[in-house]
C-alpha cells in the first residue's frame, strides 16, 4: 500500500503537506513526530475518518478512496486508536463483534461471539474475558480488546496510534511483543508515536514528520539524539542538567486528601504527601488514576471532600483558588488551551491573568507596565512571537506553554504545581521548560510535577510518588528502576514490586546467558555437521 502525496488542509493550517508513505507486509513502520506534527491526521485519512484534499491512496497498485471506516475495514485496514473506540457498558465479546454480529433475525449469537474471542485470545496471546464489561477492565486490558477488535476483521494493515500513552512499562513491553508477532505473520504495521525509546526498540523503518511534512527517514540504529534533531530541526539535549537537591523543610503538607467526582466515585483516596522546599516531587501513574484531580484539588478548582492542605504552615484546605495563588501557589494546568490561557487575549494580557491587580491603580490598568513586563518575560523565556500584542492562540504549542510557565514563575512562589508540563511540546521546548523548572527548584520552591511520561519523571524527579486508582502506592527515590515503577503503576506495593522486579531481572539475565552460550556453541560447530571446527 502507498500513500502518495497526501495533503490535508484545515482552514489556514496545512496538517499534511504532500506526504508519501509506503506500507509493506512484514514490516513495522514507525511514524515519528511531535504531537501536532500531522501523524494521526494522515492515518485518519487512510482509515476513512477524513478525506484527503490532495494526493491518493494506492492499494495493490490501484487508487482507492475510503468514504468511511467501514470501507477501510473491508479493504483490510485496522486501526487501534489513541482514545479507545469501545462501548463501556458492552462486554468484550459484544464490542469485538459490533457491526458484524453473528446470529439470525437480528438476534446476537453470544455463544459464537464468545468463542471467537477465545480463539483470537489464544492465537494472539491476548488474554481477555469475553464476558467482562469493558468499563470494569484495566486500561491495559482495554488496549487488548481494541487490538482484537481490529484483528477480528482480518486486517492486513494495522495502524497503532500512540498505543502506549495509557500503558505501564510492562504493558508496553507486552504490546511490543504482540506487534512483532503480527509483523512476523506478514502484516504491515504503522506505529505512531513521539517516544524515541519505543521507536528504537521496535522499528524496522522510521519516517519522521515535522509540521505536516516528511523530513526524512532514519534507521532503527539511529541514536535518540539523532532522531530528536530530525524531529525539531536542530540539536537538542535529552538529559536534564541538575545538581543534587538542597532540601529544606516541608513547604506543602497534604493529609488524608480525598476527592469525590460528581457521580460519587472516589478519584483521590486518602492521599498523604509532603513536598520540601528545593525538591521536585513527581507524581507518576497511568493516565486516569487520580493525578489530575489531585493537582486540581491542591489549587482548589475541584473541592476536596476530606483532608487538609497546608502551605508554609498556613491551612488552605477551605481557601479559594485566588487565595491559594496569593499564598504562593503557581499552577500549570494539564490542558493549557482550556485552563491555561485565553486564546483571544494577547501575550501581554495572558502574562498577568492571575495577578492583574499588581498592574492596576484605582481600577485602571497600567498598560505600559503590562507591556514592559511582557517584553521582559518573552525575552527571558524565549517566547517566539512577532509582538507581545499577538493573540496567544496564534502561537505554537511550545510557545503557548512557555507563556503559561512564564506567567506562573514571574512572581515569588512557595509551591509550583505543573500537570503534564510538556504535553504536546516539541523536544526543543521540552529542554527549555525542564531547565526553568529545575531553576525554580534551586530557588527553594517546592515543585510538584504530574506526568504520565516516565522518561520525564525519571529525569526531573528528586522523589517519585506513584498513584494507582486514586491512592499513593508508594513514594520512592528518583533512581528507582523502570521495572519497579511500572509494577507500582499497576498497583503493586513497593516492596513487592522490588521483589518481583528482582526475580524478573535474574530470569532475563539467565535467558541472555543461555542465548549467548547457544550462539557461542553454534559458532564453534561446523555448519550442518555438528562437529567442532578446527
From TrEMBL:
Statement: the UniProt record of this protein carries the keyword Nuclease: no
Domain ABC transporter: 1-236, 252-494
Alphabetically ordered keywords of this record: ATP-binding, Cell membrane, Membrane, Nucleotide-binding, Repeat, Translocase, Transport
PROSITE patterns reported in the protein's UniProt record: ABC_TRANSPORTER_1 (PS00211), ABC_TRANSPORTER_2 (PS50893)
Molecular function GO terms recorded: ATP binding; ATP hydrolysis activity
Membrane topology qualifier: Peripheral membrane protein
SMART domains noted in UniProt: AAA
Coiled coil location: none
GO cellular component entries: plasma membrane
Domain of life of the native organism: Bacteria
InterPro entries xref list: AAA+_ATPase, ABC_carbohydrate_import_ATPase, ABC_transporter-like_ATP-bd, ABC_transporter-like_CS, P-loop_NTPase
Record's subcellular location: Cell membrane
Major location category of this protein: membrane
PANTHER family: CARBOHYDRATE TRANSPORT ATP-BINDING PROTEIN MG119-RELATED, GUANOSINE IMPORT ATP-BINDING PROTEIN NUPO
Protein name: ABC transporter ATP-binding protein
Organism this protein belongs to: Desertihabitans brevis
Amino acid at each position: 500500500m502507498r500513500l502518495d502525496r497526501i495533503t490535508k488542509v484545515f482552514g489556514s493550517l496545512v496538517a499534511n503537506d504532500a506526504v508519501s508513505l509506503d506500507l509493506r507486509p512484514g514490516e513495522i513502520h514507525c511514524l515519528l513526530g511531535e504531537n501536532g506534527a500531522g501523524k494521526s491526521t494522515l492515518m485518519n485519512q487512510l482509515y476513512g475518518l477524513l478525506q484527503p484534499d490532495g494526493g491518493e491512496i494506492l492499494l495493490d497498485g490501484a487508487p482507492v478512496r475510503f468514504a468511511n471506516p467501514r470501507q477501510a475495514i473491508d479493504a483490510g485496514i485496522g486501526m487501534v486508536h489513541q482514545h479507545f473506540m469501545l462501548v463501556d457498558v458492552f462486554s468484550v465479546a459484544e464490542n469485538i463483534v459490533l457491526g458484524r454480529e453473528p446470529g439470525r433475525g437480528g438476534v446476537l449469537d453470544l455463544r459464537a461471539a464468545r468463542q471467537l474471542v477465545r480463539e483470537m485470545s489464544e492465537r494472539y496471546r491476548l488474554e481477555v474475558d469475553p464476558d467482562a464489561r469493558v468499563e470494569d477492565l484495566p486500561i491495559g486490558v482495554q488496549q487488548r480488546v481494541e487490538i482484537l477488535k481490529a484483528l477480528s476483521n482480518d486486517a492486513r494493515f494495522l495502524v497503532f496510534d500512540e498505543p502506549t500513552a495509557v500503558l505501564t512499562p510492562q504493558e508496553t513491553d507486552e504490546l511490543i511483543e504482540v506487534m512483532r508477532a503480527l509483523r512476523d505473520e506478514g502484516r504491515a504495521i504503522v506505529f505512531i508515536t513521539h517516544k524515541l525509546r519505543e521507536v528504537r526498540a521496535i522499528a524496522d523503518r522510521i519516517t519522521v514528520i515535522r509540521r505536516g511534512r516528511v523530513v526524512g527517514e532514519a534507521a532503527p540504529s539511529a541514536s535518540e539524539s539523532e532522531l530528536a534533531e530530525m524531529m525539531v530541526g536542530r540539536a537538542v539535549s535529552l538529559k536534564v542538567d541538575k545538581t543534587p537537591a538542597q532540601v529544606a523543610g516541608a513547604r506543602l503538607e497534604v493529609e488524608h486528601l480525598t476527592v469525590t467526582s460528581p457521580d460519587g466515585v472516589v478519584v483521590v483516596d486518602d492521599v498523604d504527601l509532603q513536598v520540601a522546599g528545593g525538591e521536585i516531587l513527581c507524581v507518576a501513574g497511568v493516565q486516569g488514576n487520580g493525578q489530575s484531580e489531585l493537582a486540581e484539588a491542591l489549587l482548589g478548582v475541584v473541592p476536596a471532600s476530606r483532608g487538609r492542605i497546608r502551605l508554609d504552615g498556613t491551612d488552605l484546605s477551605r481557601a479559594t483558588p485566588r487565595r491559594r495563588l496569593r499564598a504562593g501557589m503557581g499552577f500549570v494546568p494539564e490542558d493549557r488551551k482550556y485552563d491555561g490561557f485565553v486564546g483571544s487575549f494577547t501575550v501581554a494580557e495572558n502574562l498577568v491573568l492571575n495577578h492583574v491587580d499588581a498592574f492596576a491603580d484605582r481600577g485602571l490598568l497600567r498598560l505600559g507596565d503590562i507591556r514592559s513586563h511582557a517584553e521582559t518575560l518573552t525575552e527571558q523565556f524565549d517566547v517566539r512571537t512577532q509582538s507581545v500584542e499577538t493573540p496567544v492562540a496564534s502561537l505554537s504549542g511550545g510557545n503557548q506553554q512557555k507563556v503559561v510557565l512564564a506567567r506562573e514563575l514571574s512572581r515569588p512562589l512557595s509551591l509550583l504545581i505543573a500537570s503534564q508540563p510538556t504535553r504536546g511540546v516539541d523536544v526543543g521546548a521540552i529542554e527549555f521548560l525542564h531547565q526553568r523548572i529545575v531553576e525554580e527548584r534551586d530557588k527553594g520552591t517546592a515543585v510538584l510535577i504530574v506526568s504520565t511520561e516516565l522518561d520525564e519523571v525519571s529525569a526531573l524527579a528528586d522523589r517519585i510518588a506513584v498513584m494507582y486508582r486514586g491512592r499513593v502506592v508508594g513514594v520512592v527515590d528518583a533512581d528507582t528502576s523502570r521495572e519497579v515503577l511500572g509494577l507500582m503503576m499497576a498497583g503493586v506495593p513497593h516492596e513487592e514490586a522490588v521483589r518481583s522486579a528482582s526475580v524478573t531481572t535474574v530470569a532475563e539475565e539467565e535467558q541472555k546467558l543461555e542465548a549467548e552460550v547457544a550462539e557461542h556453541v553454534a559458532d564453534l560447530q561446523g555448519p550442518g555437521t555438528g562437529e567442532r571446527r578446527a
